[in-house]
């Protein structure tokens, strides 16, 4: 009997935070709905008064502020990256710079090794080459390969276009 009561009590106390979260979530959603209703009313009033253009200007300013924030973040990351390298030996700086390329090379050579082994094994088992090729060079593998190429060379295309 005591085991049954302690099991029920444990079950109920274990679910108590979820029940409290449910009530909190209900209150949050009610607040969000009220805020959305107020926002829609404000936008409707602005549209009735001819302030649609002002809203568009505010959106453009918000987009510009977001772009500025992203640029500032990138500059801060670059500064942090160079600050870490200050005082370090050239060997450590070179090692830090080679991490991503080495990982990319390893992934590329692993992909090649898996495909070569798969091709060799398929030929040895008598699978036709066309079927082997479609199995080894499928859509997911093409997407992976394209993302690697785009990561390393895509930013260079944008940078060269921005310099023009």
Question: What can you tell me about this protein's structure?
Answer:
The structure is a single chain. The protein has 164 residues and is mainly alpha-helical. The chain is built from six helices and no strands. It has helices spanning 2-48, 52-85, 90-97, 99-125, 129-136, 139-163. Helix 4 packs antiparallel against helix 5 (129-136). The termini are far apart.
Radius of gyration from CA coordinates? 29 Å
**How widely separated are the two ends?**
82 Å
Q: Beta-sheet strand percentage?
A: under 5%
- Please tell me what the overall shape is: extended
Q: Portion of residues in helices? A: over 70%
**On the 0-100 scale, what is the average pLDDT?**
77
List keywords for this structure.
164 residues, 91% helix, 3 domains, mainly alpha, 6 helices
Outline the secondary-structure elements.
Blueprint: H1 2-48, H2 52-85, H3 90-97, H4 99-125, H5 129-136, H6 139-163
Helix pairs in contact: 4-5
Compact summary:
The chain is mainly α. The chain has six helices and no strands.
């Amino acid at each position: 009997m005591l085991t049954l009561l302690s099991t029920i009590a444990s079950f109920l106390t274990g679910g108590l935070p979820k029940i409290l979260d449910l009530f909190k979530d209900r209150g949050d959603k009610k607040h969000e709905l009220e805020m959305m209703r107020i926002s829609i009313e404000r936008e409707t009033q602005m549209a009735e008064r001819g302030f649609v253009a002002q809203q568009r200007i505010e959106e453009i300013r918000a987009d510009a502020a977001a772009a500025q924030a992203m640029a500032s973040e990138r500059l801060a990351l670059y500064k942090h990256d160079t600050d870490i390298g200050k005082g370090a030996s050239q060997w450590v700086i070179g090692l830090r710079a080679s991490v991503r390329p080495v990982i990319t090379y390893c992934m590329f050579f692993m992909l090649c090794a898996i495909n070569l082994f798969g091709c060799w094994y398929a030929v040895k088992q008598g699978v036709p080459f066309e079927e082997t090729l479609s199995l080894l060079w499928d859509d997911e593998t093409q997407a992976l390969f394209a993302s690697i190429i785009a990561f390393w060379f895509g930013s260079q295309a944008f940078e060269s276009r921005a310099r023009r």
